[in-house]
Amino acid sequence: MIQSLFILSPTGEVLIERHFRSTLTPRTVCDTFWSRASESLHHHGGISTASSSAVIPLYDSVPPVMEVDANDATGQTTSVYLFSILRDGLSYLAACPCTTGHDGPETPPLLVIEFLHRIADTFVIYFGNPADEAAVKDNFSTAYQLLEEMVDYGWPLTTEPNALTDLIRPPTVMAKIHQAISGGYHSSTVLSEALPTGTVSNMPWRKAQVSHPNNEIYIDIIEEIDAIVNPNGYVISSEVSGTIQAQSNLSGVPDLILTFNDVTLIDDCSFHPCVRYSRFEKDKVVSFVPPDGGFELMRYRVSRENSNGGGTAHPRNMPIQVVPRISYGRLMDGSGANHEEVRGSISLSVTARSISSLIYASSRRGPLVIEDVSVVIPFPKFVRTASLNVTAGTIIYDEAGKIAKWVIGKLDEKKRPQLNGTMILEDGSENDVDDRMSSMIEDGEQPPLLVTWKILLASVSGLNVSGLSVTGEHYKPYKGVRNITRSGTFQIRCH
């Protein structure tokens, strides 16, 4: 299983290093990984220096599994599988042995990747969102203790937040003050001295003797659209996946049954451990005893055949349209001759479209409003600098990473923000400049735009909750359900 675990900062610094087996993985594997990651245009590239008020989201193009050679203490070269994920600017790496032997069979890749995401999710729960470099450094002792409890000899052990919070206290202001006064780390400020009540029951995801003054449960049906759109607004490819997020504040040990209006819309499901999977296979209902607090109840893909007739897993009319216009050309002097300096121009227009493939809730009122709209604009490597202006929102250009982020915020049908700007290319001879521009057009070097957005009370599939019953307790809780549609990896091609 997992031999060693590393957490790297956005600059490649090793923040946390933990070994779980007798074989120690050298840090040279981190150097090998970082040399590969630095080659990727969309990995880090200096984005961490951007303003914290408008952090540019990063999407990773580094392979999630790599085979890396490592030299052990005796000088012998061995190979390990290096699993990696990128979350909040931090790279989570897990080194696992390549071959079968005394350590057991080859490690399942998806198990390791899911476990790394579970570690990152736990850091968010403990340290807040985002769980970035500063959060890990400020709570280093807590992060290290969490890894101690979550992994046992390289195997995932305790990953449920309710069980972890019983074992390790979440950081508080008073605990940090006590640590500063005492002059350093003390186990009593992190570890809980009481026996964890949740881990001795048959439901480790739920604490015992939970009590709330107001019993309520909220459910969000969130559907994400991954799409590639051409400059004219035509959808080249799209896929829709969904998650059901729940916030449970229920006393005692309630037993819940969740039913849907049309279960055939759901395909390829995965559930939280609290869900009775056999009951879903038999009756197509979600029966579960919920954890206390927020959790992800289930994840699914929207079926390609939508029996509802109103939506599809491949929407052709998106609620937002981004039209890019990017061109490069040589400046002309007063005599009409070509100048050595080559400039580029860029213009973007963003429009909200009420006519789309989305299905809106009956409780929705008023015109279409798209929230949290932003556009990430990666520039080619040969662009030296860019000057950008927008008619709405704010624009941040990162000189080192060659990436700009345009934060628009709320967008409606009446608001049509525009971006205009110029680019100056790197110096070079006339032939070099012409070769760069021609190769860029032929090879499609202009990276696509990455757009993020969110629409409340809307869905692609039309999936909704038809019933939510609570048994095992005498109270009648307040129940809230809403639909949210948002962008996943939503790319706009520029050519």
From TrEMBL:
Source organism, top-level taxon: Eukaryota
A single cellular component GO annotation: endomembrane system
Location(s) in or outside the cell: Endomembrane system
GO terms classed as biological process: intracellular protein transport
Keywords: Membrane, Protein transport, Transport
UniProt key word Protein transport: yes
Classification via InterPro entries: Adaptor_comp_med_subunit (IPR050431), AP2_Mu_C_sf (IPR036168), Clathrin_mu (IPR001392), Longin-like_dom_sf (IPR011012), MHD (IPR028565)
Domain MHD as annotated: residue spans: 214-493
Main subcellular localisation: membrane
Entry similarity comment: Belongs to the adaptor complexes medium subunit family.
Protein name as it appears in the record: MHD domain-containing protein
